[in-house]
Amino acid sequence: MSAVISARGRLPSFGQARFERWWEMDGKWVEEPNQRRGGQSGVKLLPPQSRGLPRLYSKRQVGHVYRTWLHPLGRPTVLREELALRACEQLGVPVPKLVFCAAREHQGQWQGLLVTEELTGFVSLGQWYASDETVTRRRAVLQQLAVVLRRLHGGRRQHGCLYAKHIYVRVNGDRAEVALLDLEKSRRRLLRSRAVRHDLDQLRRHREGMPDEDWQYFLACYQSLTGGNGDSRHAA
C-alpha cells in the first residue's frame, strides 16, 4: 500500500489504518459522485458514531486534483481544503470541524478523504431566505455575514466559491451565526482586495433569495468594517 499523506505531510502507520477505516465506512450519498477536475467527487452522510455526537460527512474523491506551480502534476484537492479549514479556524471564521483528512495513491490514482462534523441547526442562506424571516433577523444575519467575510478577507484568504448554498446560518432569537462550507477552491491571495472582489462578485451573482435591498445593506455593513475603502464597491 502506498503512503497516506495529509496537508502536513506523511502519516504514520496508524494514520494509514484510519484512512482505510474511514474509506470503507458505508453511508448515504447526499451528493452523488460526479465528474469534475479530471476525477470523481461525492459526499456521504455517515451513520452515527455515538449517541449525542454530531453527524459526520465524508467527502470522497478519486483522481480529483488541483495544480499550481508548486504542484504541476496535481495534488489531491482535499488537502487544499484541509489547509483552508485550518486557516479559517485561525482567522476566527466558523467552518465545519475537521475530523480527518488524508489522501493516498491507489492503482495510479489519488484517493482523497475529508471527514467533517455536521453544522447542527444550520441551514443554507438560500433555504433560510425561503422561510420568510423578519427584517430584524435578516439584518442580524447580514451583519454577521459581513463580520465573517471581513475576518476571512482580512487574512487575504479567498473562499473561491462563495455561493449562497455554501453560506450556512443559524438564528436563535435575534442572535445570528454564520459559517462557511465547501472551501476546496479557497486560497490565499497576495492582495486582500483581490480576494474581496472575487468573493463578493460571486456572491452578488449567486445570492439566491437575497433581495437587492438586503444586498445593499450587507455591502454597507461590510464597508463599515473595512473603513469605507472601495474594495467592495464594484459589487454594488
What is the compact description of this entry?
The chain is 34% helix and 29% strand. With 236 residues, it is an alpha+beta fold. The protein has 2 domains: 4-117, 2-Layer Sandwich (Phosphorylase Kinase, domain 1), CATH 3.30.200; 123-228, Transferase(Phosphotransferase) domain 1 (Transferase(Phosphotransferase), domain 1), CATH 1.10.510.10.
Oligomer: single chain
Order of strands, main sheet, comes to: 2-1-8-9-5-4-3
Q: According to CATH, what is the class of the largest domain?
A: Alpha Beta
Rg over alpha carbons: 19 Å
The average pLDDT score comes to: 91
The N- and C-terminal alpha carbons lie at a distance of 53 Å
Keywords: Kinase, Transferase
GO molecular function, one term: kinase activity
Protein name: Lipopolysaccharide kinase (Kdo/WaaP) family protein
Pfam families: Kdo
Written overview of the protein:
With 236 residues, the chain is α+β, with helices and mostly antiparallel strands. The protein folds into 2 domains: 4-117, Phosphorylase Kinase, domain 1; 123-228, Transferase(Phosphotransferase) domain 1 (Transferase(Phosphotransferase), domain 1), CATH 1.10.510. It is built from 6 helices and 14 strands. Strands 2-1-8-9-5-4-3 form a 7-stranded antiparallel sheet, sandwiched between helices. The longest helix has 20 residues, at 135-154. It is globular. It starts with a strand and ends in an 11-residue tail after the last helix. The model has no long low-confidence stretch (mean pLDDT 91). It holds the Pfam family Kdo. This is Lipopolysaccharide kinase (Kdo/WaaP) family protein. InterPro entries: Kinase-like_dom_sf (IPR011009), Put_LipoPS_kinase_InaA (IPR027023).
